[in-house]
Specification:
The protein is an alpha+beta fold. The chain has three domains: about 180 residues, no CATH class; about 325 residues, no CATH class; about 150 residues, no CATH class. It is built from 22 helices and 17 strands. It has a six-stranded antiparallel β-sheet with strand order 7-10-5-1-15-14. A five-stranded antiparallel β-sheet has the order 3-2-13-16-17. Strands 4-8-9-6 form a four-stranded antiparallel β-sheet, with no helix packed on it. Helix 1 packs antiparallel against helix 7 and helix 7 packs antiparallel against helix 8. It starts with a helix and ends in a 7-residue tail after the last helix. Keywords: Membrane, Transmembrane, Transmembrane helix. Pfam families: TgpA_N (PF11992), Transglut_core (PF01841). InterPro entries: Bact_TGase-like, Papain-like_cys_pep_sf, TgpA_N, Transglutaminase-like.
Length: about 750
């Protein structure tokens, strides 16, 4: 029970504590107590698990499904439908929400039900199958999932409790296999010592070591998208894979967004929690609303996913329609993003229609960045915000007379010569993040990458009373020199994940800016009579700056020479290297998985060789280990003859072969010294029996080998495979200790 509590405790970081906590603990305790009482009645393992499952279903039905259950207790078909709907609802809440989530009835149902099933599995593995190490792995895995979902510092209490629970599981199992005499030997002290050293190493030494980089969004092979600002490690990867290709009727290639982040906790930016509607519903996005007089241009962008497995669909902004998708997709009208099932983007080809407001310089200067027209999360600032953020914003924007000019001043300052784009400096300085402290450090060091620029710009805009948010998506990619229907096809690479800020203007909507130094071209609007001129060489804002056909930044590809046709030619070689790397990883994993079976096979051959030389204990060890590997009950109190008779009676082992092995081990154990045997001195070199006739020794080895073969053939294919791949005798070191 302690292990269950320790494994589920980290879930409170993902879902806010509530009644579900007590429901989970109560159900888990009831299952464990029920299993304990039923085992005292000698009930079969299947019967115990069935009753535990019935208890779980009953409790979940009474608490969550009683409206559709018969008499409020017995689940019927309507209850199954209700349960399925709750699972779907909970899945959507998990997908669209950010931690910590509100414990809704659907989420509580999923957590309590899953905890019940998990408790049954652990109870069966640890007590029925007597595999405490595997149960410990399961406990650790469940406790690790919340840490992966919401990275944070190690919870010392939770980890210590889990470590103690796993050690207790292992010690309880080993005590059950030891002779009653001598149980109070040094085993407990050794286990306690190992546990103490492990805890000291984990809780004291490990925190002082260099910390790992943040979770990545993609990697070798098929890329993925993490809808957060954990982009640093992904951007630092040397290899590049093509994630998609696109072409657009827009005069400038658009950026492709996947998610927006408005809520800032002071430490992290949270993806927006907005309501969603099925994409196939007509007009789900709605029209783009602008102030009369502001022109709106319609464009079509064709996207073909080549190597991207994600639930977030890359789309240009502001989308008003998406055609050509297969599968189930939902649209979020408030930020005009599209989401589907996990990995649903792979192989998709679709067309996105956008309606882009195109205000003139005078029109956007006359618009206010009004925080009252958007949600409060887009304007909120955390307590204890470092003073450097607000003071720097006031200093840079001093002298500006409108919101747009103030933002252009900020953008130009970031893109000026004082700042440097770097993927390494943030790591070296220890602020590879997007929190308030990281932004403060970035403003002092003036070196970072898109996450730092976007976070700093968005927070500084908020200190000036302008609503802002951050967008995660992809740069427009590199030119492939291929033209389809008059449109240039661009290749978007995995390393072109990007983050940029947006500010909301009345009558125009969300306007994107590009503060990241040396990356692309800054956002600018021009008057109706201005001619286009590039901002890349002159970041200083002026009244006659270059016009942009869209409030979306007119940014180019990164400055690492990706915007050339040579980059596309390099993709096959990069893919070959990626494939080679994944091949090496696959071979390594296969070798790791095969290692226990290989070690056990080598050990078994050594034992059979010893048996052929007359070592009766080695022959018996082969038989006993085979029984343990196949999950046959082997008690520490069983004598060789008791176990041998049970194997003959219950598992159809040849009686003559079994009797030969049992008689040999009995002679080795009880015969006077020098009469046919020599006492065992080690696990495999046990002292050989005096075997004048070599044929008797060969018969002993043959009997042990035949007995093992018969046991393996009598087992089910699944049990036999498990015995070969993960031999329990090797894991637990089960050997015969004869005195």
């Amino acid at each position: 029970m302690i292990g269950i509590i320790a494994a589920l405790l980290p879930v409170t970081r993902v879902v806010s504590p509530g009644a579900w906590v007590w429901g989970t603990l109560g159900l888990s305790a009831a299952i464990m107590v029920t299993g304990f009482l039923l085992r005292r009645t000698r009930m079969s393992a299947i019967g115990i698990s069935a009753i535990e499952l019935a208890l779980t279903v009953g409790v979940v039905t009474v608490v969550f499904l009683r409206d559709t259950a018969l008499w409020g207790v017995l689940p019927v078909f309507a209850s199954v439908d209700q349960a399925a709907n709750l699972v779907v609802t909970a899945s959507e809440e998990i997908f669209y929400s950010a931690a910590p989530m509100v414990p809704t009835p659907a989420l509580s149902f999923m957590i309590v039900g899953a905890a019940g099933l998990f408790t049954i599995a652990v109870d069966h593995i640890a007590l029925t199958a007597r595999m405490p190490l595997l149960a410990g792995v399961a406990l650790f895995t469940v406790s690790l999932i919340p840490a992966l979902a919401v990275p944070s510092a190690v919870n010392l209490w939770s980890f210590g409790l889990l470590a103690a629970a796993i050690l207790l599981l292992l010690r309880a199992e080993t005590r059950g296999r030891e002779p009653r005499v001598g149980r109070a030997s040094g085993a407990s002290a050794v286990a306690a010592g190992i546990g103490a050293l492990a805890l000291i190493a984990t809780l004291i030494i490990t925190p002082s070591l260099p910390q790992p980089a943040p979770r990545v969004a993609s990697g070798s092979g098929t890329a993925g998208i993490d809808a957060s600002l954990s982009l640093g490690q992904d951007l630092r990867r040397p290899e590049q894979i093509e994630v998609l290709r696109m072409r657009s009727s827009a005069p400038l290639p658009p950026y492709l967004r996947v998610a927006t982040l408005s809520e800032f906790t002071g430490a992290v930016w949270q993806p927006d929690r907005t309501w969603a509607l099925p994409l196939d519903s007509g007009g789900v996005f709605g029209d783009v609303e602008t102030t009369p007089g502001i022109e709106v241009a319609d464009y079509l962008t064709t996207v073909e996913i080549t190597d991207l497995s994600s639930s977030w669909l890359p789309v240009p902004f502001p989308a008003v329609g998406v055609d050509g998708l297969s599968g189930s997709w939902n649209a979020m009208p408030l930020n005009r993003t599209v989401v589907g099932e996990n990995g649903a983007t792979q192989g998709q080809s679709y067309v996105v229609e956008t309606s882009v407001p195109e205000p003139t310089l005078d029109q956007i200067r006359g618009a206010d960045a009004n925080p009252n027209r958007v949600r409060d999360t887009a304007s909120a600032l955390p307590e204890n915000l470092p003073e450097i953020i607000a003071s720097t914003a006031e200093e840079i924007t001093a002298g500006t007379t409108n919101d747009y000019d103030a933002l252009i001043a900020l953008q130009s300052w970031f893109r000026g010569s004082d700042f440097r784009y770097s993927l390494d400096a943030p790591v070296e300085q220890g602020f590879d993040g997007s929190g308030a402290d990281a932004v403060a450090a970035f403003l002092e060091v003036k070196s970072g990458y898109c996450v730092h620029y976007a976070s700093a710009f968005a927070l500084m805009a908020r200190t000036l009373d302008m609503p802002s948010r951050i967008v995660v998506g992809y740069l427009p990619g590199v030119n492939t020199s291929t033209v389809v229907e008059g449109q240039t096809v661009r290749s978007v690479l995995s390393g072109q994940l990007h983050a940029w800020p947006e500010v909301y203007f009345d009558g125009i909507g969300w306007v994107a800016f590009e503060p990241t130094n040396s990356l692309g071209t800054a956002t600018r609007f021009g008057s109706a009579t201005d001619t286009a001129e590039n901002d890349a060489t002159d970041p200083t804002p002026t009244a006659t700056s270059a016009p942009s056909a869209t409030p979306q930044p007119t940014r180019s590809a990164p400055t690492d020479n990706l915007d050339t046709s040579d980059a596309s030619a390099a993709l096959p070689a990069q893919r070959n290297l990626v494939a080679l790397g994944w091949g090496a990883v696959a071979v390594g994993l296969l070798a790791l998985l095969a290692a226990p079976g290989i070690v056990a096979e080598l050990r078994r051959r050594r034992l059979l060789a010893a048996a052929a030389a007359g070592d009766s204990v080695a022959a018996w060890t082969v038989v006993r280990d085979t029984a343990v590997d196949l999950g046959i009950r082997v008690s520490g109190s069983d004598t060789p003859r008791m176990l041998g008779e049970r194997l003959v009676r219950e598992h159809d082992v040849d009686a003559d072969a079994m009797n030969l092995v049992v008689s040999a081990i009995e002679r080795a154990s009880y015969a006077p010294a020098g009469v046919g045997v020599v006492a065992r001195t080690s696990e495999t070199a046990v002292g050989t029996a005096a075997d004048p006739a070599g044929s008797e020794s060969r018969e002993l080895a043959t009997a042990a080998r035949d007995t093992r073969t018969q046991l393996m053939l009598a087992a089910t294919p699944g049990r036999r495979s498990l015995a070969l791949i993960a031999p329990r005798s090797l894991v637990f070191g089960l050997v015969v200790r004869q005195r």
